[in-house]
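Backbone geometry:
***
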Amino acid sequence: MGIWLATEDKDTITAVVSVDGLPFIGPVFTQSSEVTVSDLSSQASFLQSFYSELDSAGMRMAAQRGIHHQAEAGEHQATILEMAAMSDPATASDAIYTIMTTDLRDKLSNVSAQITLLGASGGFTNEEMKQNAEALYQRELSNALNANVTMNTQSRHFIMYDDPQWLLTQIKAAIQEVE
């Protein structure tokens, strides 16, 4: 969302810290920077329809499928599953559709804001997979004028659960860099 705001309001937004969020989610699914919105459009429509039909238990079950990529500790996974169960299915379905059909990569060349992407690759099982994730993140920001990627190789997607001190340190450093 921060990257999106920076593409729309270039004069006000001077810095963005993105916590494991890319300008287009497609490459996360395909492991290729060549993927386009049209490549994912049918999948995005399917998931929008799928999530809109779920109830609380269904939202929890859907989140359960990928929970091992979200957080390491069992209590944090339980919290994430509870949040999913409390989520509004219509809102979740629209959000999923939007992130799968919004590609900001080409707009990055017009963003003057400092973009700091704090990525997480701790859910991967070996060093090669972690390096591939970092390379993918770097490619996804390659059009940006002023961006850097810092990976946490121990944390999973919810960095604030797996390594909160690292996250706070990185956010503070990003803020100090633009002050």
Observations:
- The first helix runs from residue 2 to 8.
- The longest strand covers residues 114-120.
- The CA atoms of residues 137 and 155 lie 15 Å apart.
